Amino acid sequence: MAEVLLEVENLTVSFPTDEGLVQAVRGMNFTLEPGRVLGIAGESGSGKSVTSLAIMGLLPGNARIGGSVRFRGRELIGLSDNQMAPIRGGKIAVIFQDPMSSLNPVYTVGWQVAEMISEHQDVSKDEAWKRAVELLELVGIPRAAERAKAYPHEFSGGMQQRVVIATAMANDPDVIIADEPTTALDVTVQAQVLEALKTAQARTNAALVFITHDLGVMAGIADEIMVMYAGKPVEFAATEELFYNPRMPYTVGLLASLPRLDTDSSEPLRPIPGSPPSLIDLPSGCPFRPRCPLSRERCEIEEPPLRRIGRDRHLAACHFAEELEERGAEIFAPIADDAEVISS
Amino acid sequence: MAGNGKVLLEVDNLVKHYPVYSGKLIRHKTGVVHAVCGVSFELSESETLGIVGESGCGKTTLGRTVLQLVNATSGSVRFEGEELTNKKGAPLRRLRQELQVVFQDPYASLDPRMPVGDIVAEPLIVHGRWNRSSGPRRVRELFRLVGLNPEHTNRYPHEFSGGQRQRVGIARALALSPKILVLDEPVSALDVSIQAGVVNLLEALQDDLGLSFLFIAHDLSVIRHISDRVAVMYLGKIVEIGTRGQVYEAPSHPYTQALLSAAPVPDPKRERARRRIVLEGDVPNPTDPPSGCRFRTRCWKAQQICADEEPALIDRGQGHPSACHFAEAAEVV
Question: What is the ipTM of this complex?
């Protein structure tokens, strides 16, 4: 068993609002080992981003956080900002979707990467600048020595995201959390940035948590994938196992609803009927039940735990996961007027 | 679903330039953004033409210029032989009933203070086709057509999910029984599980009503799924156009090849076995496009001729038009 870097155990996050308690994360569990890529997939509101913010201690003050996040055995939940500071950007780095939310518009990019280095390491200013230029070169910024003196607005979105990746790897982190790092980018730029990210990870041998809703990107980068729905992991498996043998109806539905680039088919897609539940007013039992073609009485009474099913290390939160072996995508009908359930 | 051959819309050498001004006291024109530069295509009855390209390639401006929501700088747009670009007032309004639009953002394109029934009825009222007895019936019929509950006409947009709002937008676009829908990124704002239902709905509507779609999107998978023919745009120009099979299975323009090779596929074994064409650099500034071929600054095939001579969009032996001096089919998906 390899060394465990990060252990997330029964993490819960909720936000009190005027309408009620929003249960954004309802029990997240995973462990990270060096050099591995854990993909976290799910649609809007599934709790992917809140999980990453909770790990970094970046949630707003009104968030109620439960459970445990341990980094090399040390509990992170409840640490003050001062106690978190050496870890954030040092041993755990984060890359967000919008690079301009991470970069300061009034400093040059080289200054920002160098600052990251001198903040966490005892090096001279010149040394920090030299390393910053090396890092910018490593993530594929042409003429890095010269471009380091430019300001963020002089860069395109893809180049800005590379600068963020350079800052993320500046202190040889153990864990890099990338939250939809390529979602705002065009596909050709996305391909470049993913290359830069893979380089960063290979260089630092960090564990990478890659959060995305894009299953195509996920297929290319993740070693293992966790699928989230309504604040909970509902399936976990090695990447190929998850794509070729999904055992949670939600995962099956997600894959069946994707139009494909690589096949010429005029067959109608198979959408998942309905919409995700309100996180304030979750349905009883399984949260996917109202949309699930397999649902029956038991699903209404009992929320299925994430349990081990047949194969090695494959977990699924469905009472009837075994039935999917035979039926797969067929459980969803190729329909257009999917009689959506109006919430409220 | 493929078109039956009767051409409905002809776009010929369409150009849209936006002037750039600067100067604080005295504003003067300092340049021109070449948003759409000489685009030509035809759209047949019951056909879907997909327009695909990355941000800034001019696909949205193209859609808006076709619809006469912005005035063309030059060129021609003909609907059933009638020129649209020189029309104003009543004659334009009459033709507009035949070309309707669905926008990307179902949150921004619906008035939050109007009940959705009124939103769908508005085109009928604007065009003088509202009738007190048949009007409400038509609205309910449109709701049913797009898979919404006709009892919900008095609800407000915020009471609906993203997918349902987009259905309201589609119902509004269908109110005047148009022949053509211009769909500008109609499913990009939706989660995949919801997106699939809207895509299926559009396909079903096309089959039932014989609509033609100009489907603008950046998502190459959605475009492949829904289109009969596909046009790929780069920096204001169509670089390649053909049937879906031609463009996806035998792309011959280097940009199309790079674009398709960069788009990920949700299949781990295939995805990891693919060869990526990773482009260098960024899209050039549209106020100062490169001479000759606009893609040459990022193209691995570029030679002197590419800077000197703009490659025409013609068939170069691949069976479909490609704007590259060195067009050559390749399999990249």
Answer: 0.88
